[in-house]
């Protein structure tokens, strides 16, 4: 009697779990439930602390910890927005960051003593990509573009990104560049406030450029024509060095490897600081020591990122891992791990295989019904190939969303065919 309920119960269980796996894969992307370290950080003046981004169920929030790591606390009380790109004011009393709500428009926010305010530049609504304070704290330099242009399709938009200066007291906005760049990011200001450094992208490669803020500015010669392929460039507090990441030789598994480099303004020479088969991002300089803070993805090049906050002493080359303790999110971590497990393509495929085989054994006494999983798998595979033939881009999206590829479905159909034939011989 117990045996008669075993196969139906197993088929029901695997069917329910497969349904959950497919629904999660269709409805959400892989990062929706992720909780863990983000890829950005900022160091307070006098090295009094570190603010970093941290994912809580797929949404980045800002946390602050001591300069050596340890217990971390939320920077803001703001709910419902994604918080990115932290930047300290010169005196360390205020923090600037980008906030994204339900729309895709990124606005500028300031936070002081955990009280958050939106920065209201005068004129039309803007979408921002990065921002920093001027050395005297009286202005904010920001990369942005009109919000309506940002929301428009590429065919409709005629405007790109530029740099703007926002007066903190009046909110008046003045446009510094008129280049309409395709993409811009990684904005830095020189310690004297006479030039800006930033990263631009043409869509195929990135390069670092500078622009003067005052007439007659003497930009250091090595900074005037920097080579392409520099990512995440950051200017040191004294303006004498630039930290950046770049693609080095491919690693042993054939994937690109991103390492940390340091450019010296005095002689124009570069020094390679890392050589691990990982992905290094977002370098930022300490203010009071010859050290660099950066993010390292230890799981590179796999899709599930595993960022760690790393600190390197430039003179010795020794790097240590800082481990901020983010508390109060245990339930989010558990939920994210569970959802991530069921959204894994291998798990989806295993559940599909187990459900198909259990269904075959459940229907083994019916001559033709045992081949239902075969028909379903073959039809799914055929549909995938048809979509691929008509629209390859749509097929790629469907393939990623469903999990098992059309080729895998053909393999499953063969397995189910053999299983169905053998099951009919079982009494």
UniProtKB/TrEMBL annotation:
Membrane is among the record's keywords: yes
Coiled coil feature spans: none
Annotated keywords: Membrane, Transmembrane, Transmembrane helix
Transmembrane segments: 341-363, 370-387, 393-418
Pfam family, one: PD40
Origin superkingdom: Bacteria
Recorded family membership: Belongs to the TolB family.
Name listed for the protein in its UniProt record: WD40-like Beta Propeller Repeat
């Amino acid at each position: 009697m117990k045996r008669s309920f075993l196969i139906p119960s197993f088929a029901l269980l695997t069917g329910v779990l497969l349904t959950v796996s497919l629904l999660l894969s269709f409805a959400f992307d892989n990062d929706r439930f992720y909780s863990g370290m983000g890829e950005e950080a900022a160091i307070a003046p006098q090295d009094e602390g570190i603010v970093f981004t941290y994912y809580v169920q797929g949404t980045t929030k800002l946390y602050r910890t001591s300069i050596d790591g340890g217990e971390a606390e939320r920077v803001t009380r703001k709910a419902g927005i994604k918080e990115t790109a932290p930047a300290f004011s010169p005196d360390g009393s205020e923090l600037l960051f980008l906030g994204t709500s339900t729309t895709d428009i990124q606005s500028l926010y300031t936070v002081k003593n955990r009280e958050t305010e939106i920065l209201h530049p005068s004129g039309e609504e803007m979408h921002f990509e990065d921002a920093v304070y001027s050395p005297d704290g009286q202005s904010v330099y920001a990369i942005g573009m009109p919000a309506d242009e940002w929301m428009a399709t590429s065919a409709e938009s005629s405007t790109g990104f530029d740099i703007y200066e926002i007066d903190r007291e009046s909110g008046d906005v003045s446009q510094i560049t008129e280049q309409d760049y395709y993409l811009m990011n990684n904005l830095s200001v020189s310690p004297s406030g006479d030039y800006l450094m930033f990263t631009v992208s043409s869509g195929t490669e990135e390069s670092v450029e500078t622009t003067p803020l005052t007439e007659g500015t003497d930009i250091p010669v090595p900074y005037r024509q920097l080579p392409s392929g520099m990512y995440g460039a950051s200017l040191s507090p004294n303006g004498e060095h630039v930290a950046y990441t770049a693609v080095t030789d491919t690693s042993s598994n054939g994937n690109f490897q991103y390492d940390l480099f340091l450019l010296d303004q005095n002689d124009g020479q570069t020094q390679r600081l890392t050589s691990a088969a990982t992905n290094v991002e977002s370098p930022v300089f300490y203010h009071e020591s010859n050290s660099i803070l950066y993010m390292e993805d230890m799981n590179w090049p796999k899709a599930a990122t595993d960022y760690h906050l790393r600190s390197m002493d430039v003179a010795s080359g020794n790097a240590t891992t800082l481990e901020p303790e983010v508390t109060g999110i245990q339930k989010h971590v558990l939920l994210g791990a569970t959802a991530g497990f069921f959204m894994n393509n291998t798990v989806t495929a295993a559940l599909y295989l187990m459900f198909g085989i259990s269904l075959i054994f459940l229907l083994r006494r019916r001559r033709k019904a045992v081949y239902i999983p075969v028909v379903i798998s073959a039809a799914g595979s055929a549909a995938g190939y048809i979509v691929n033939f008509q629209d390859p881009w749509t097929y790629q999206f469907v393939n990623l969303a469903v999990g098992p590829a059309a080729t895998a479905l053909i393999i499953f159909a063969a397995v189910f065919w053999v299983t169905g034939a053998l099951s009919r011989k079982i009494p």
